[in-house]
Amino acid sequence: MKSEYVDKFNHDEDAPGYDQDVLNEAHPIRAGYSELLNWVAAKVEMHKPGRVLELGSGTGNLTLRLPQVEALTCVDISTEMQRIAQEKSPASTHITYVKADILEVLDQLDKKFDAVISTYTIHHLTAAEKQLFFAKMESSLAPRGIAVFGDLMFENQENKTAYLEQCRRSGQEELAEDIEDEFFWDVELALDKLQVLGLQASAKQFSELSWGIVAHKHA
Ligand SMILES: C[S@@+](CC[C@H](N)C(=O)[O-])C[C@H]1O[C@@H](n2cnc3c(N)ncnc32)[C@H](O)[C@@H]1O
C-alpha cells in the first residue's frame, strides 16, 4: 500500500535547489539539519551494520556522510533527487537506488537490514501511516538491528499547539501553514509505539523542530 501523499511530497520540482536550500539553517525548518545528519551517520558508524536501508535518500546528503558498509539500499520516489544523488557519488558500487514509496517498499524488499535510517522524510507520512511504517520497519530489521531517524518533530501535541500559536502571534503565518501542511512527528507517541513493538528507543533534540530518534531491536 502506497502512502497517501506520495505524489504531493515527491521532490522532483525541488531537486535543483534542494542542496542550496538546506544550507539556510537560519530558517526554523532547516535549523539543525547538518548536525542531525552527522548524528545519524555517527550512530550508523558506531553500530557497524552490514546491510543498510536508507528511506527518502533525496540528493544523498546523508548517504555521503555514511561510513563504508557492505550494501546500502537508497529509496526515494523522486527521479530528480536520485539523479543528483547518483551524480554526487558516481563510484559507489555498494549502493543500489530504488525508486519507490517508502511505505510500500518495505513489503517488497526480501532481505532484512542491520540498519534502517531516514532523515527529513517520515514526516511526509500521516500519523496512521507512521504507525504502520514502524511495524513494517521493525519486521525489516535483523535481530540486533538499529533504526535511526532525524526529522521534524514536536515533543507532544501541547508543544505543537503552543508553537503554532506563537508563530501566528509573531506574524509567521507562512511557517505555521507549512507545519500544518505536513505531519511532524509526535516524539512521545513515536517512542511509545516503538517500545510497544519491542524496540528500545530514545530521542534527542537538535533544534526547535529537528529531533533524532534511535531504536534498537533485541537479539
Ligand atoms: C525533505 S527530503 C529529505 C532528503 C534527505 N533525506 C535529506 O535529509 O536531505 C524528502 C525526500 O523524501 C522523498 N519522499 C517523500 N515522500 C516519499 C515517499 N512516500 N516515498 C519515497 N520517497 C518520498 C522526497 O522525494 C525527497 O527526496
List the helices and strands and how they pair.
Elements: H1 15-21, H2 33-47, E1 51-55, E2 71-76, H3 79-88, E3 95-99, H4 102-108, E4 113-119, H5 127-140, E5 141-154, H6 157-169, H7 173-180, E6 185-186, H8 187-196, E7 200-205, E8 210-216
Parallel strand pairs: 1-2, 1-4, 2-3, 4-5, 5-6
Antiparallel strand pairs: 5-8, 7-8
Helix pairs in contact: 4-5, 6-7
Which key phrases capture this entry?
219 residues, alpha/beta, Rossmann fold, 24% strand, globular, binds S-adenosylmethionine
Q: How does this model look, in words?
A:
With 219 residues, the chain is α/β, with parallel strands linked by helices. The protein has one domain: Vaccinia Virus protein VP39 (Rossmann fold). It contains eight helices and eight strands. Strands 1, 2, 3, 4, 5, 6, 7 and 8 form an eight-stranded mixed sheet that branches. Helix 5 (127-140) links the parallel strand 4 and strand 5. Helix 4 (102-108) packs parallel to helix 5 and helix 6 (157-169) runs antiparallel to helix 7 (173-180). The longest helix has 15 residues, at 33-47. The radius of gyration is 17 Å and the shape is globular. The protein starts with 14 loop residues before the first helix and ends with a strand. The model has no long low-confidence stretch (mean pLDDT 97). It binds S-adenosylmethionine.
Largest sheet: 8 strands, mixed
Counting structural domains, the number is 1
Overall average pLDDT: 97
Radius of gyration: 17 Å
- Tell me the structural class: alpha/beta
The helix/strand order is HHEEHEHEHEHHEHEE
Q: What helical percentage do the residues reach?
A: 25-40%
CATH level-4 homologous superfamily: Vaccinia Virus protein VP39
**What compounds sit in this structure?**
S-adenosylmethionine
Low-pLDDT sequence parts: none
* CATH level-two architecture: 3-Layer(aba) Sandwich
| Broad shape | globular
For the terminal residues, how far apart are their CA atoms?
29 Å
How many distinct beta strands?
Answer: 8
Helical element count?
Answer: 8
CATH topology: Rossmann fold
CATH hierarchy, class: Alpha Beta
Query: β content, as a range?
Result: 15-25%
